[in-house]
Amino acid sequence: MKQQTEGYSLVWGLVRRAAYWAVPALLITALSLIWFYRASTYRIFDDPLVNTIQALIASVETNNNDGADKPIRLTREPIDDRYQLALSGRYWLIGEIADNGEVGTIMESRSLYGATIRLPAQAANQIKNNPGDVVRSTSRGPDNEPLRLAAQSVIFPGETETPVVIIAAADSRPAAKAVQNFSVIALGLMSILALGQALAIFMQVRIGLRPVFKLRRQVADVREGRSKEVEGVYPTEIQPLADELNTLINHNKEVVDYAQTHVGNLAHALKTPLAVLRNEADAKKSKLSGIVGRQSEIMSNQVDHHLRRARAAARGQSIGVKTSINETLTSLSRTVERIYREKDLDIQLNMDDDFEFRGEKRDLEEMAGNLLDNACKWTKAKVYVSVDIPEDDEAFVRIIVDDDGPGIHPDKYADVIKRGERLDEATPGSGFGLSIVNDLARAYKGSLSLDTSPMGGLRTILTIPSIVEAS
Amino acid sequence: MRILIVEDDPDLARQLGDALKDTGYAVDIANDGEEGHFLGDTEPYDAVVLDLGLPIIDGISILQKWRADGKKFPVLILTARDQWSEKVSGFDAGADDYLTKPFHTEELLARLRALVRRAAGHTTDTIDIGDLMVDNRSARAFVDGAPIKLTSHEFRLLSYMAMHVGRVISRTELVEHIYDQDFDRDSNTIEVFVGRLRRKIGVERIETVRGLGYRLLDPSGDEAPGEEEE
Fold first, then answer.
1. The domain defined by A62-171 carries CATH number 3.30.450
2. Which chain A residues are within 8 Å of B53, Cβ to Cβ?
3. How many CA atoms lie within 13 A of A180 on its CB side?
4. Rounded Cα gap, residues B201 and B208, in angstroms
5. ipTM of the predicted structure?
6. Cα distance from A419 to chain B (closest Cα, Å)?
7. Per-position b or e across A46-80, b if 16+ CB within 10 A of its CB
8. What tens-digit pLDDT sequence spans chain B (230 residues)?
């Protein structure tokens, strides 16, 4: 026997393994998309800031000691209206960076409303050290809104000693909002894609495994006797399995047949020498012949007993076999008529339908043969056989045999049926046959019961599995 | 009465042969299917005891061949095969009775007697012809209730003639039915046996029909029972 391992689902296994790579791949894709989108959004966002700086540089003029309070002036302010509107979120500023990093305002957009723009220390250094380069950074606006800013330090030649820093800033919240929205949408879509993929794999596997489920039903049909072997056309990957199963089923049949044949051969090979011993012992009366006679009797009973057990053991394994009850009863009644020719019996069969037994023909012959033989042995003139389907269980069929003989007292029914279990009490011709029938019927999950016949003798009722007609 | 035993176990065949000879039968034994089939095909047996598991040709095939060739002698199947499926195929092949091994010799003898007399149209094992009584069960004959001492050959002769009482039986037929195949068949010995038998049961009981054979007369004048037709 194969060791019992914990069962696992092929479907869920495949889905899970697919998820192992699909989920990280989708996550990385989503994050990359978000990163690129974010970079591109901020680049586009920053472009107008750089333009503003360039416009401011272009329009700066120096006040050459002409008494103005500011060292520079603008020939033209940037035209965007938002620079005029207080706290609009668009700001520019021209100033000087003090040694401590603070920005001293020289000029500013009106939108700043008198406030200044703080530069982070690192950005301030970077600006100071790299005059002419556009430096990007973030800060807080007058309304404490997050800002993105571009700044450049410029030295106007010959006119001022210290460099002037020009800063353009904008409220970064709309861009951040856009990036956030994109992130949500990207992650959401990727999740939907992941679920869809999982579902697709699940469906694919279910549909892909359909032939396997079909094969399972077929094998069940074989086991329950509805079909002889696995039938149908399967995909090329499954067909070899179906073929192997059929080979296995046939092999099983052959092994059972082989074992049965050989047990039978052994038993039968022993019977002839036993007959010789018994006859020899019968012929000559002596102490030795008495022992030989008794022992050969015991041996022959043992052979019968074990032969029957071997047949019974092989029985449950015969699969997918059905036998016509009508044909079997007809040929059996012909046989018992010959056996009891001297009694000139009237054997009637009443079968108003085609009945089929789910099992081996020889087993049906053994059961029905013994019932008929028993009835013919005891009856006076008539044996009546009828077959029907019990009302309460249509998976079975009943064979009822009536005779008009002396019958058996109901108290002894159990003894007669059980006789086979107590080998030592069994003597030929004493109803041993009925216990064989009982053993066989039970091997088929059927039963044998006895009753008083309306004809006056014994009624035997054999209930055995039938093939249920698909109607 | 002449019986063929087809049985491959030599001990069992010998036992059966001895038992049958003791009860007044001429017996031939075949130890394989081929010989058995040949003997049954060529010799006029009154009954055959046939084993099923035989070398060369199996019993069922032999039986089917005999029946196909129109052989009507009764056949008793004696086999270790005790399943009903085997009984059914045995009877379907044309057997008249079926006995499974191991068996009691008495039962085999009784069944064989029944087959032989039924084939000859008799219903009992004893045949009464006037005050002559032939008991096939014990292989003895009585006149007026007194037993007559008969050799086995004499009894076979009487038994065969009693089975077919009232019918003229040729010498050849008598030779074929009371001697086994190993016996030196000189038809003159039949005359010797008939002569001895006449002396023991009464000369007038056996009539010589010149050129045809012998007839056991039935003083009651009843018609001879016809051969059973099946």
1. yes
2. 268
3. 6
4. 15
5. 0.75
6. 18
7. bebbeebbebbeeebebeeeeeeeebbeeeeebeb
8. 889 999 988 889 998 998 888 888 889 999 989 999 999 888 889 899 999 888 899 899 999 999 999 888 999 999 888 888 888 999 989 899 999 888 888 889 988 988 888 888 777 878 888 888 888 888 888 888 888 888 888 888 888 888 888 888 888 888 888 887 777 777 677 888 888 888 888 878 888 888 888 888 877 755 444 444 33
Among B43, B110, B16, B99, which Cα is nearest to B7's? B16
Q: Chain A interface residues facing chain B, Cβ-Cβ under 8 Å?
A: 267-269, 271-280, 282-283, 296, 300, 304, 331-332, 334-335, 338-339, 341-342, 361-362, 365-366, 368-370
Contacts of B82 in chain A (CB under 8 A): 304
Of A268, A334, A341, the CB nearest to B80: A268
- Which of A274, A332, A361 has its CB closest to that of B102? A274
Residue A230 tokens, joined: 């696995």
Q: Give the domains, in start order, of chain B with CATH numbers.
A: 2-120 (3.40.50.2300), 126-216 (1.10.10.10)
Q: Nearest chain B Cα to A366, which residue?
A: B84
Q: Are B141 and B157 in contact (CB under 8 A)?
A: no
Domain borders along chain A are: 62-171, 240-315, 323-465
CATH number of A323-465: 3.30.565.10
Do residue A272 and residue B80 have CB atoms under 8 angstroms apart? Answer: yes
Residue where the block lists tokens 């023909």? A361
Question: To probe the interface with A, which of B49, B52, B84 has the most A CB atoms within 10 Å?
Answer: B84
